[in-house]
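Give me structure tokens for this 366-residue protein.
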Amino acid sequence: MKYVDEYRGEAEAQQLLRATERLVTRPWTIMEICGGQTHTLVKYGIDHLLPPLVTLVHGPGCPVCVTSLAMIDHAIALARRPEVILTSFGDMLRVPGSSDDLLSVKALGGDVRMVYSPLDAVALAKRNPDRQVVFFAVGFETTAPANAMAVRYAHKQGITNFSILSSHVLVPPAIEAILSSEDNTVQGFLAAGHVNAIMGYQEYEPLAERFKTPIVVTGFEPLDLLQGIYQTLKMLEEGRWGVENAYARAVTRAGNLPAQKVLDEVFAPCDRAWRGIGVIPQSGLRLRPEYAGYDAQQRFALAETGVVESPLCIAGQIMQGRAKPPACSAFGTLCTPEKPLGAPMVSSEGACAAYYQFRAHEAVKK
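Here you go.
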């Protein structure tokens, strides 16, 4: 058990694997939502430890990966403006836009700064009243409350030279889009525990009922994932559906109510384009009208422009569970972490980056 012995509970992992082997009688396909879960599954070879009848596919759970090309181009355009200080978390700096990335703009003189919190960006705006400070706000429901707090704080403090470029996305609409697809093969989901720690899992229950699909909330350690996989397979084998919580140490059904309250106050749902997938209705968050003055898209009148993805990149298929990274003709050759064609090769949570680091030997020979 070299894959799990550095984590807690090797004996429990052995027990779960044996129970899973006894349980499975037919082929099943399960999708994990979170890129962090993908990284753990690939790193520790958990998919190879499971019965051959079980297939794990990777979902659109990396926020960096699903941020649209147009939105990245907006961030790059803002970073080139002399009056703007463009701030972001570090994982967005190398994500390729249509022609450049934010690090390239920084190298050419753009004022691009990495921050560790959106409140760092607010403080930066307070110290630089003659500049416009924009925070590139990406992420799922996990990071959105902190960004909502930053906007609300700036509003209360009367800081008017701060704004956010919001590219937040929501998990339930993405699950619905996958399950509604005519060529969907996913039969069960591992939900992302950190998202559910904020939002709870009540909103997943109608989805599970409508599509008769098991959804199990799970964590990120190998043992967490083995437990979540086992519970999902047990529901599938027994012909049951619904939502189960295998991450009770961090997640409740109701979630974090104060965080949900500030999200509701500052943000409202909107349609959102997902990179490699397209527009998913009501899958994003935009600022409500009372906070519209902090919307960078409105403040700088950023117009939508036509953008074209690399024809070699199959990131959309990968993030919908229709293909795995080694199936891409560019994987490991034309597309590497040093010269990525798509965001899943850039982000540390991206499926392509995980396979490049731990499974490069599985690449289809070109």
